[in-house]
Amino acid sequence: MPAFAFAVSGLFGSNVEAQGGIRLRQPFAGTYRLTAYVDHRSPDYTYDGNVVVYNGEERLNCPDCGEAWTNQGTYCYDGHNATDYALPGNTPVLAAASGRVTFSGWRSTYYGNSIRIDHGNGYETWYSHLAAFSVNLNDIVATGQQIGLSGNTGQNQPYHLHFEVRHNGDVTDPFGWQGNWSDPLPSGLAVCLWGDGQCFEIVVEDESDWFYKYGTGWDWDCRGNGWTMRRVANRQTSESAYARWRPDLPHTGPYAVFAFVPAVHATTTNAEYVVHDRDGDHPVLINQLNYSDEWVYLGSYNFWDGILGYVYLDNATGEANGSGEVCFDSIKFRQFRVYIPIALKNYP
Known about the structure:
Number of domains: 2
Shape: globular
Number of strands: 24
CATH topology of the largest domain: Glucose Permease (Domain IIA)
Helix content: under 10%
CATH architecture of the largest domain: Distorted Sandwich
């Protein structure tokens, strides 16, 4: 039991992951949908018809949600210089690391109310579109301290937090660079700055090149993680639609697997995810109705490196045809930092 407890501690949070002389935490408590990444090709709002995100995927794909605000999405926000999170209005915004407040006020018509914190070592973080301030200029703040409330000030966009990281004045990406080619970020190679385990995660979005869907009856919505999510009506017996998330993993060994379940449309009580690893297939039943914009832990598994492992889900739930919907959103794979075989037996 002590060995397993140590493995879980190493898995779910450690202060040694960050590589750049600073350790960031998420600028909020709890879980909220990530809706846009830094565009590594042109993080200065230059529209060049392409988006390059931290995992090396490059393309422009903007889902039309029938809304005025259409530039969100993992592969859509051309020229974006930050990470966006779908925080509802008046959600507490927290300092991502300790430091001194060097700006607190109206940044511009685009950004609205904003706060900048100087963390030393050349690092600064910006928090924009705020509704209110909880700190003043020159205040010294601690990691996780409330600095304001989220809002939609600026261009009157839907409520969200614009979280921007700069190093020596230039935009960088707290997710670093996982691509298998040279980072095109103008300031140079980005290194992962998260101190909460995210540096060892591979996230496969439903818009990713590593997500494959088959069959009929598919629909989608813009209220998923990474902006989009896929959904399909359930069937009692044989499936009519299924999908696989097939990550390109950097190392052989143990990974924890999580599925994001959105707050909308996930109404089946019997979604059967199947994790395929070096030991075979492992079915995991999840009542999606019990979750709302949450990462759900599917267990820890022993994967190959490369693309041989995957997570599978279909719409055969054993419930009456059309009585609910199965949602297909992001899947993430978090690498264990220490190989402890007992952790691999932690199947739900």
